Here is the input.
Amino acid sequence: MSDEMVTIQVDGKSIQAAKGSMLIEATDNAGIKIPRFCYHEKLSVAANCRMCLVEVDKVPKPLPACATPVMDGMVVHTKSPRAITAQKGTMEFLLINHPLDCPICDQGGECELQDVSLGYGGFDSRYVETKRVVKQKDLGSLVATDMTRCIHCTRCVRFGDEIAGSRELGATSRGEHTEIGTYIQKHLDSELSGNVIDICPVGALTSKPFRYNARAWEMSQKETIASHDCVGSNLSLHVRRNEVLRAVPKNNDAVNECWISDRDRFSYEGLTQSRLQEPMIKQDDKWVAVSWDEALEFVASELLSRTKNDAAATGMLMSPSSTIEEGFLLQKLARALGVENVDYRLRQSDFSETQTPWLGQSIADLSVNNATLLIESNVRVDQPMLCHRVRQSALGGGEVMSLSSVGYQMNFSMHESCVVAPQRITEELAGIAKVLSNLSEGSVCDELVSLYPGIEPSPSAIKIAKSLFDGATSAVLLGSMATSHPDYGLIQSLSVEIARLAGANVGVISHGANSVGLNLMNMLPKKELASAKSFGDMQSEGMKNVVVYNFEPVYDTYDAQTCLAMLRSAEFVVEFAMFENDAQKDYANVLLPITPNTETSGTFVNCEGVWQSFTGAVKPFANSRPGWKVLRVLGNLHNLEGFDYMDSSEVLAECKAHASELAGISASGQWQRQLDSSAGVARIGSVSPYAVDSVVRRAAALQKTSLAENGVVRLSPELASSLGVQSGQRVNISQGDETIELSVVTDHSVAQDSAVVPSDVVVSGVLGSLYGEIALQK
Amino acid sequence: MDSVNSHEKIELSPSVCEEIDQWVAKYPVDQKQSAVMSALRIVQDDHDGWLTTPHMDAIADYLEMPAIAVYEVASFYSMYELKPVGKVKVCICTNISCMLNGSDQLVRHLEEKYSIKLGEMTEDGQYSLKEVECLGACGGAPVVQIDRQYYENITPEIIDSILDKLD
Here is the structure.
């Protein structure tokens, strides 16, 4: 849209509007209300509800404000008799077939149709014929339907096409027989499907998990930040009697616009499942609930005496979705006790990165890149709101490419998709660097040359390199699977080399909600301290004392087998936990119940480096307490200096003082290959989008969707036929000492000799590293 | 994947694909879906005059468009049949001009003749009756379309003789 402005007159008031914009945008900006149903500022204009009809001078008929471009000198009347008559007429037509079932409709009280009909509807109906009835549809576990209430605004249809990038809903049949639906019996599969609930102006599409739970006016609205990915979508939680009943997006154009992922919307269901209620201590192999005083004094005295002698054999591990306040306090406590072994990088196995793993640019800028290379990233389901931006760049003519061990299905067309086995990712990157050195007439660094002598770039590498080089703004993005890759450091070094030669940005899409924040707070071993141990070192060397902060080792770590072994052999394990599980009862000595982010104040730093603070929406569950408060009291009990905070904002102020500026990502200095080219069947240990953290894993409705696919192994057809198995058959998968049985799905998008075995397979037996050799047997 | 979301798949025959290709060639390369109406007609003609969901899915795959967009087109236009139709499809216009000129009588006559209602097919699969909107030939109202042929100024007697001849 041009910057040129025109002046129009609306209801006698002179207003400025951008040339080419629609009348309704101008009136919205000026605060003049025009009723509408089909218009949505983020969607294309359909002009099919006709509710926004207004009178324009010198035009013989009323015009829809949403589809009428402003013109200089235009004189508009939104409340003239002619405009009002047109709007009331439209309203009467819209209500002809709409059932009068507001008392049993979930949308009642927050319904656009209800609101507008109050102003424009008649007192009684002149319609005496039979009303149409539309058969109920089953769209899956997230979206409930009452299609008789539908007014055919087609917002949901346009949303699927324009934002979700997969058209699942459509308007079938004609005239009075028109129906919005999927035509065939089908569940919504999109990772953004819940947004149709928000944009539906009537009660046709409502939230299934929330259904019949509460009325809008019974709930209060609390703002928070979503905690399941590195985007930090802004949310409004709707709370009644100290219970979170639903989550809806809060507008923030820089972060999530007006959308959120289904994961952020429906994860609240997990908040109250199997929560740890009381502090507990294991006495003579029996778990005993104790008071907070007793628990904290026990932990403080044990930690103090144990770290006095064994600080080097003590490690503190934290979930990457913990708040910055918690991270700052935990490392402060650790270091005050002389413990330098702290880490939050639970799904990593290479710890050689030297800088804060951030996006390298703003989230909004992702949508204007001319060329984007995604490395080991299933961004569509892992970080749906980042994918939304990348998709915008692709729709705008940008070239998006991927290099990964699975040809992930995106909701836009890929310029190039290079699928290779995990151990060959770095070779492809070296090939890209080599092509770029020719294109840019620069030279690749010596380390690369000596590691990959005489490498022949593949056709894909050539295409990718050319696109990155030609793009005016290009980005190389390391997906969260890349950060889990055993060669993460090398991938980063190679990416930085590629970016240097191509003039591109490097960015990392990190795990959890707050990897960037915890990194800024030094919740990881100091590089300059050789004796400080990373998570990997702690596991390989074994720890006597371990603090487990807010994660479930079986699902949230890179190598569950090794992590569990470390915890089981430790003498003393304190676990700060939101939830109960069987494994913790086995390895831990003390359990301290802490709160999810809906019950505490805190701050997440998202992947673009924006600090987003929030306050608790509800009181802590049962006897749990906010983690930062527990850490503060532990500091006090140790008589440590600087733990006398009155509230979390004081902690935050100290965090801010400690945080350094985000710098461009540079080479990790890692130039060695960990993953060998000659490995047999390689495991690709993806993390299912609805199993990323302990809250989401407990969200019931999400687990019933097709994205939450569980208990299957995906194999390339070649590998399946060499094993003599077909889709649907069972195979035994062995890694380390354990064997589990999964059902086979053959999938052309999986690299040869590789198998996708997610980290969250909820079956007996615990597997090892996310990337590693596995054995398959029929 | 969810069993709800998967169903039977079919492949279009080479001759059908060849015919569709002729229509695809008429549109810009990146707008293959413009050929959807022709494709639906071609596939319908090839399959006893009606379309199944797998047929529409195959067209969606072939023209690289969302399946729901094909369903929308096929369910919108009255010339596409989504359930089996008789060998002879009799379409009667019941819009204003035809109605004023006696289409009601025609409908009654044909319904009695074949003992079926509008939108139904005779048990032997020979005849279908279909109510259609304006066929754009009001000057010759009432109008009946049988397969691709228009018949104007129709009375029960005339339609009988036309249908007899078709037998």
